[in-house]
Amino acid sequence: MVEAVWLIPALPLAGFLTILLFGRRLGEPLAGWVATAAMAGSFLATVATFFGLQSRDHDDRFHVQTIFTWIESGSFTIDIGFLADPLSIAMCLFITGVATLIHLYSIGYMHGDPNFSKFFLYLNLFAASMLVLVLGDNLLLTFLGWEGVGACSYFLISFWFQNPSNAGAGKKAFVTNRVGDFGFMLATFLVFHEMGSIRYTDVLSGAPELSPGVGAAIVMLFLLAAAGKSAQFPLYVWLPDAMAGPTPVSALIHAATMVTSGVYLLTRLNPVIAAADGWVGPVIAWVGALTALLGALSALAQTDIKKVLAYSTVSQLGYLFLAVGSGAYVPAIFHMITHAFFKALLFLGSGSVIHGVHDEQDMRRMGGLAKFMPITAGTFIIGWLAIAGVPPFSGFWSKDEILIYAWEESPLLWFIGLVTALLTAFYMTRQVILTFFGRTRFFDATQEEIDQAWENRSAGAGAELTAARADLDKVAEGVAKAQADVDKRAAAITEAEGAFADAQAAVAAATEGDDGYDKLVKTLTKAEKAVPKAQDAFAKAEAKLVEANEGVAAAEAAVADAEAKVSSLTGARLSGPSVPTVVTAKTEAVDVSELEADLPESYAHRQGHPPHESPWTMTVPLVVLSVAAIVAGGLNLPFTKGLHFLEHWLEPSLFANEHHLEASGAQKWLFAIIAVAVGLVAIVTAFAVYLQRRTDPTEFEQGIAPVASALDDAYASFMGGPGRKLFELLTWFDRTIVDGAVNGVADTVKSLGTTTGRTVQTGFVRQYALLIGFGSILVMAWFLGRILL
Amino acid sequence: MFAQAATSPEVVWSLLWPLLFLSIGGVLLVTVTSVIPALRRPGMPAALTILIGGASFVSTIPVWRRVADTEGPTTVVAGAMSVDAFTVVMTAIIAASVVLTALVLDDYLRREGLDGPEWYVLLLMSASGGVLMAAADDLIVLFMGLEILSIAVYVLAALHLRRTDSQEAGFKYFVLGAFSSALFLYGIALVYGATGSTQIDQIAANLRLPNEAGLTPIEDASLLLAGVALLLVGFAFKVSAVPFHVWTPDVYQGAPTPITGFMASAVKVAGFAGLARVFVISFSEFGSGDLIQDDWRPILAILAGLSLVLGAFMAAGQSDVKRMLAYSSIVHAGFLLIGVHAAGHGDAGVADAGGRALVFYLITYAAMVVGSFAVATVVAGRGDADHGVDAYRGLFRKHPALALMMAVLLFSQAGIPFTSGFMAKFRVLGAAVDGEAYVLAGVAMLAAVVAALLYLRIIVAMFLDDADDEGGDEQVAGSVRKIDVPVGAAISIVLAVIVTIGLGVLPDLGRGVVAAAADVLVNR
After folding, report:
1. Taking the complete model, does pTM exceed 0.90, yes or no?
2. In Å, how far is B51's CA from the nearest CA of chain A?
3. Using the beta-carbon criterion (under 8 Å), do B314 and A730 form an inter-chain contact?
4. According to DSSP H, which parts of A60-138 are helical?
5. How far apart are CA B147 and CA B125, in angstroms?
6. Number of Cβ pairs < 8 A linking chain A and chain B
7. Quick one: average pLDDT of B71-76?
8. Across the interface, which of A73, A186, A772 has its CB nearest the CB of B237?
9. Better-scored residue on pLDDT, A427 or A442
10. Residue-wise DSSP of A487-542
């Protein structure tokens, strides 16, 4: 049944082609089901191949299936062929298994995404590439898969490309991986040059004849490649950033597949490592140990639920390199498998959480989710126990083995591994507590919402002040009007009195019986009456003025009030409620009762939409993976030789290069007890700090946070400093000399009338000619120099 | 040859058909179309050109039979031209470029409102110059070929009347080309002065004569090396190797896009054919046993290294696709120079690997570059101006097939496995490693890694773009433009892709052809 091996990569490839051609027509969810079915078929083909191999003789478990000969020139041939051996099939088993679950999960997770079918297109292509990487029977085919997974991860991480940070993260992954690819290419050529073949069967059998120096060079170059792909120091910076992609992608890339390819490559080439100088192993081990420690330190203070897992992946991959470097190939593969299960479980669990709390990734906004999403919480806790190294969960068995090998390589490496284990148990416990236990902080107002409320409120106060000021202006206007009225009335009184006096005088001057005397008297009476009328009006106007003045005072008071309110708001905001940046399970809810009315709509909306459990397509994979995370330790139980299933299975692929432990049974027990004790101490400490808040973790978290970004910052400052300068120099050359000429034409056309314009234009071509002339002189000088010397 | 010039040399016409089709076809096209108006109708000149180019291509087959299978390599016209496997292969590539370019050019000219037979006449003339260059067995003939090729291309580059860029490109190319031609001609004179011959085989033979006092035909080694230096400069200019590449970005960007494709393929192929023939065959060894290669190979390595590094890094900073492809062609020139470098190696095995790598690279390169520029022609739209990376945004959504084809061509240029570009790079690097040119191979791999970023930028623009969310692209003026792929361009692109994938998956397809062509160069 080993003949089925070609189906393993072919099925996902077929799925890819189907979706490529009919993706839009298939739509949601059919495209997802097609992809999942292709993956499941691939898993079945792997199982068939596995049984096929198993039925063979123990030493006959290398099956090369050649599809066709790709390149044939003289003695050098490259086949398109697949190598089914215990190592590649072990890899394929968990890759296809986990990938199938992730495909299924994605159907639920990507529900409603406008690019649903495109996502599965990339997912299938990614899986196919990964399987080609593992199954290729020569380095070139592995490289093809290597490039393929790189490109697909770039596409998948950038999948939600509307967000510029995603596109940037994808680019970072690509560039860092290219550095590693460069190492792969050089190493492949070196292998070809030294051995005349790049077929694994030839390389593995020919490796013992390599000179140690060349072997070391090959391994170091492959280590560079592996460091890029498997996110090792100093090339790990891309992995945490790659978290920007959809969660199933994170799970597929970080847990099961791409990041393990570096470990696979080094394990595959174990005879080359064995033939190389003695220092090669320790270098790999130290790179791994350093990565493990740095990754764990970086994970401690993360607040993003996926970033914790990303740094944790970096750290666990460091473990795998530590194992490979210590000659512990079986534990490396063992831990790779268990890690694939529990890390995929944790990633998918975190995706389920993110899904349940409406795309929130900040753990400070979670807490107490266990009662809302019991399945997710339960499975996540199993994953946590597995990664924290609690027996009998799978992580314990595999991690324990690595530590024993590390001890025999160097006690210092063991110590670093132990510290890493401690840190791992600590930050994972922190994550579980912050996510699933304690008070549900989901409903709390966020800092943004509080800020928004304050903004709303100060906007309200501001509006009030403006209104009061407008009111005051209006009142003042009224006063001025009333004053004018009073003045007018006063003038009217004077006028009326004058008229009365005039009339009196006129009456006095006239004699009774005269013509018009009556008329004068009538006027007098009228004038007499007009005076009190005017006085009345004046009094009324005066009363109005008083009233208006009173209004001014009131309006002024209102303005003062409003002003006070605005200025007090700034103070109130400073002393008002704020969300703590570091939280524990005990962190109290921010009291926003006084701000309630001003909180944005998102707050009220959240109260009505509590977290929810995910659909079955998402929870079923979680349950399956959690079972695997519990029992996977059974693959290689340490108690008796008969239980070393994995070791026995992998034996033919390792050519007896596996380091043989000198530790006695009692010592092994001691190591196990120390590891368990350390893990428990970390868990208990984390419980004390984060669940019961015996101490305040604020200072600790703020102190440790810069570790995570230290290397990133170093890269950034290099790229911003010397690296950028170099690039700028090159672009300067292009811009000033080459582009300058192009732009020069436009400028020249503008200034065509002037003679200077003409000179400039010919000047550019002259500049070119000058360069060519200069180059010619150099070439000439070289040749003539040959004669003289 | 000059001594015999008085009597007409015997001419084996039957071996010259591929060249004659092109040159006589060109002359006939210009005369007949001016006499018969019906042939000036749109499409007719293109159809005739395709016919002529196709005839030239097909006629290489019987010639191949004779030189490769039955009669063996020979020279014609009194040793002016070699007719051998190498010549035939290069001729076939150039003839194929003519056909593919004409297919694209037809619709391009209609779109731009520029139709006329003169484009095709110049295309055919320039191709015939290229064939002459590739076949020349004499430096003077080679120079004639170079000029016939170049002058026609200068005019073609400037022929888009409404684009000042185009005229500027033609002008620049002409001035600098004249400059380099002058150096080249002077180089021929110096070599003649030193060796007493301009004939490529004869130069090699003269150099190999025993170096007894007074009998050596080499008058002065410094004269010879100065000549070699100038010839190298002339070739380096034509194949745009750094630092003689300065014209390339401007001219590639400015020239009408289908013509740029022709320049990048046929012109470069002719340049490399001449370079390989002259250097690998003529300048091989002295009679004293010293290898003259030791003089020119190091400088060739430096030129290759500079082209690779500068081309790759400069390409990364560009935002104009034509300019990117110009720098990418400089990187390719670097790879091809590595091939020539290996072909000149003293060890026969390495030289053989180098020669094969070179020939294979030229075949694959011509196909993918013609295809790439054909896509650029289509995407640019009316006015031939839309060449920014932005113009490629969301191309997959607008025209999936076109985007996929372009992706294949770009992946091939980047050297991704299962494309011909990968095999080409692999072979060149393999030859370099065989020849223990480790530094050069390392630089080349580094350049390949850096250059991959450039191709990826275009690919990503095509596939991953915010134009995907419906309605989002309405704001981006121009990107809504519907893309129609004309039939001619479609055929051209599909053929290029077939070659690219075909030689990627089955690289041994033309193994005998490549081996025979390389054999001419290295087994002297």
Report:
1. no
2. 35
3. yes
4. 86-109, 116-135
5. 11
6. 148
7. 83
8. A772
9. A427
10. HHHHHHHHHHHHHHHHHHHHHHHS-TTSTTHHHHHHHHHHHHHHHHHHHHHHHHHH
The closest CB to that of B445, out of A147, A182, A733, belongs to: A182
Interface of B with A in 78-107 (CB under 8 A): none
How many CA atoms does the CB half-sphere of B456 hold within 13 Å?
23
Chain B residues lying within 8 Å of A192, measured CB to CB? 430, 433
Q: Is B401 on the interface with A (CB under 8 A)?
A: no
Q: How many CB atoms lie within 10 A of CB B285?
A: 16
Rounded Cα–Cα distance for residues B514 and B522 (Å): 12
Residue numbers in B near A72 (CB within 8 A): 508
Model confidence at A713: pLDDT above 80: no
Q: Given the DSSP bridges, would you call strands B81-83 and A63-73 parallel, antiparallel or unpaired?
A: unpaired
Task: For chain A, give the mean pLDDT.
Answer: 83
B474 pLDDT band (50/70/90 cuts)? very low
CB-based contact, B243 to chain A, within 8 Å: yes
> Average pLDDT, stretch B237-244?
91
Would an 8 Å CB–CB cutoff place B226 in contact with chain A?
yes
A-chain CB neighbours of B314 within 8 Å are 730-731, 733-734
Whether chain A has a CB inside 8 Å of the CB on B45: the answer is no
Structure tokens that stand for A141 in this block: 């085919």
DSSP state of B227: H
Find the closest chain A residue to B425 by CA distance: A185
| CA atoms of A643 and A640, how far apart (whole Å) | 6
The answer to whether residue A205 scores a pLDDT higher than 60 is yes
Residue B142 to residue A600: CA distance in whole angstroms: 80
From CA A607, how far away is CA A601, in angstroms rounded? 10
Helix-helix angle B438-463:B293-316, to 10 degrees: 30
pLDDT of residue B265 exceeding 90, the answer is yes
A66 phi/psi in degrees, rounded to 5: -95, 120
Residue contact B453–A742, C-beta within 8 A: no
Q: How many CB atoms lie within 10 A of CB A643?
A: 14
Measure CB to CB from residue B433 to each of A193, A734, A771 and give the nearest one.
A193
User: Once rounded to an integer, what is the mean pLDDT over residues B231-235?
Assistant: 94
pLDDT number for residue B164: 83
Per residue in A450-475, pLDDT (tens digit) is: 888 888 888 888 888 888 889 888 88
- Residue A113 has a CB neighbour count (10 Å cut-off) of 15
Cβ A226 vs Cβ A263: under 8 Å: yes
Taking CB atoms and an 8 Å limit, are A765 and B172 in contact across chains? yes
What is the average per-residue pLDDT within A475-500? Answer: 87
Given a contact cutoff of 8 angstroms between Cβ atoms, the answer to whether A315 and A295 are in contact is yes
CA nearest B259: which of B146, B137, B170?
B170
How confident is the model over B101-140, as pLDDT tens digits? 999 999 999 888 887 888 999 999 999 999 999 999 999 9
Nearest to A768 among B164, B176, B356 (CB): B176
Domains of chain A plus CATH, in order, are 302-445+615-709 (no CATH), 448-575 (1.10.287.620), 722-788 (no CATH)
Structure-token pair, residue B269: 């192929």
Q: Which two tokens stand for residue A564?
A: 């006070």
Give just the sign of the alpha carbon dihedral B437, B440, B443, B444.
negative
Whole-number pLDDT of residue A594? 76
Residue A13 has pLDDT above 90, yes or no: yes
Interface confidence (ipTM) of the complex: 0.84
Judge whether B278 is closer than 8 Å to chain A, CB to CB.
no
**B237 contact residues in A (CB cutoff 8 A):** 772
- Tell me the three state secondary structure of residue A446: coil
Residue of A nearest to B309 (CA): A730
Question: Which positions in chain A touch B442 (Cβ < 8 Å)?
Answer: 186
Q: Is B81 helix (H, G, I), strand (E, B) or coil?
A: strand
Q: What is the DSSP letter of B265?
A: I
Using CA atoms, how far apart are residues A579 and A461, in angstroms rounded to an integer? 23
Per-residue model confidence (pLDDT) at position A744 = 47
